[in-house]
Amino acid sequence: MELNKVYLGDCIEIMKELPSNSIDLVFADPPFNIGLKYDNYNDKRNYKEYFDWSKKWIIEAFRILKKEGSIYIAIGDEFAAEINIILKQTGFYYRNWIIWYYSFGQNQRKKFNRVHTHILYFTKNKEKFVFNSKSIRIPSARQLIYNDKRANPIGKIPDDVWEFSRICGNFKERLGNHPCQMPESLLERIIKTSSNENDIVLDPFGGTGTTASVAKKIERDYITMDISKNYCDLIKKRISGQISEIKRNSYQKGGDAGRESSKMLQFKINPIELFVK
Ligand SMILES: C[S@@+](CC[C@H](N)C(=O)[O-])C[C@H]1O[C@@H](n2cnc3c(N)ncnc32)[C@H](O)[C@@H]1O
């Protein structure tokens, strides 16, 4: 199978085409089974069907990962515990349960607003894996706030709660009408941490192609795929730099499908960006 290509089809079937122990990093942002509106995927399956399907693709991801490879899975509250168990049962080793925190969650009427997604970080080997701490360090409170001489001048490894803005409908980074495009900054942290230049990064659920796009920018090889031809076409355009064409073709007046509330479009400035970085 060729590297740096976008494949159309079911991720389990496509991953089956890959040799065992061939991929350095898997990032997966599967449908969360919460009834989002995708192009041609039904995001509302019964519990057992979704659970069994998750098992199948995670087992395939385990097989194709190199012995020292890593996997990150983004998942909602509804199935985070189940995916965590599947990862452990498959043979992966737990490293972090990361919380991606964002503003502009969906407003709720009879419960607290949800402003996070889980990112489960596991490795195939318990001790040997890539963790490029120097590439992802951030300024510490000792440096920024306390001006403490004991502060490590190269900063600190980020905590396990990550604050990155979601890609709202009116953001410059936003492409097309896919219901859940991830921010490039988040993917950049993951790829820089757990792969080196020229390593192979695979995303089984390409969507708008965030993983492939970042991988290319920071000189990793990628393999990505989606079950929707429209999304595959979008990814190809994004990767080849035809971004303005994507926006022109797919912008729809009135906001977005899926996760986002139209209320958020009233804001001109993303509040997170006021105090992050
Ligand atoms: C949550 S989205 C991924 C979004 C992506 N992380 C991004 O930044 O754009 C999940 C994607 O998985 C795709 N999908 C669903 N079932 C699939 C399958 N069996 N094989 C491949 N892709 C699938 C959907 O079409 C959807 O685009």
Question: Which tags fit this structure?
Answer:
277 residues, alpha/beta, Rossmann fold, eight-stranded mixed β-sheet, 10 helices, disordered C terminus, binds S-adenosylmethionine
Characterize the structure shown:
This protein has helices spanning 11-16, 47-64, 77-90, 133-136, 141-144, 184-194, 210-217, 229-239, 243-250, 271-275, and strands at residues 5-8, 23-28, 65-75, 93-106, 114-123, 161-163, 200-203, 221-226. Mean pLDDT is 88; it is low at 250-277. It has 10 helices and 8 strands. It has an 8-stranded mixed sheet. The radius of gyration is 19 Å and the shape is globular. It is 32% helix and 21% strand. It has one domain: Rossmann fold (3-Layer(aba) Sandwich), CATH 3.40.50. Strand 2, helix 2 (47-64) and strand 3 form a beta-alpha-beta unit. The longest helix is centred in the first third of the chain and has 18 residues, at 47-64. The protein has 277 residues and is of the alpha/beta class. Helix 2 packs across helix 3 (77-90). It binds S-adenosylmethionine.
Topology diagram in text:
Elements: E1 5-8, H1 11-16, E2 23-28, H2 47-64, E3 65-75, H3 77-90, E4 93-106, E5 114-123, H4 133-136, H5 141-144, E6 161-163, H6 184-194, E7 200-203, H7 210-217, E8 221-226, H8 229-239, H9 243-250, H10 271-275
Parallel strand pairs: 1-8, 2-3, 2-7, 4-6, 7-8
Antiparallel strand pairs: 3-5, 4-5
Helix pairs in contact: 2-3, 6-7
This protein binds S-adenosylmethionine.
